[in-house]
Specification:
alpha+beta, Alpha-Beta Plaits, two-stranded antiparallel sheet, two-stranded antiparallel ribbon, 4 helices, globular, binds iron/sulfur cluster
Amino acid sequence: MDILEKLMRVYFISDERPHITVNKSICQSCSSKECLYVCPAQRYTMEAEGIQFVADGCLECGACRISCKSGAITWNYPRGGFGVRFRLG
Ligand code: SF4
Ligand code: SF4
């Protein structure tokens, strides 16, 4: 089972207020960009205008929070009733 098949086993309840925010001005001077490599849901992408982040689809693993050494990421769990839902079984 590849990552896309695995991601189809979860679903998300979106919140208008994202639980993770990224200070992109800090990202401009980041040479390592660990966030692009550690996120299992590929929520971080590099576009022409720089790092982009989409909170919907986040698995709440915390890897980006730990890997970003520049302090660009403000990380919280989603508010109650929002976020990822894992389908078990
Ligand atoms: S690792 Fe942190 S500072 Fe670097 S690009 Fe990613 S979010 Fe921005
Ligand atoms: S918490 Fe995990 S799944 Fe969510 S954006 Fe960060 S690395 Fe990706």
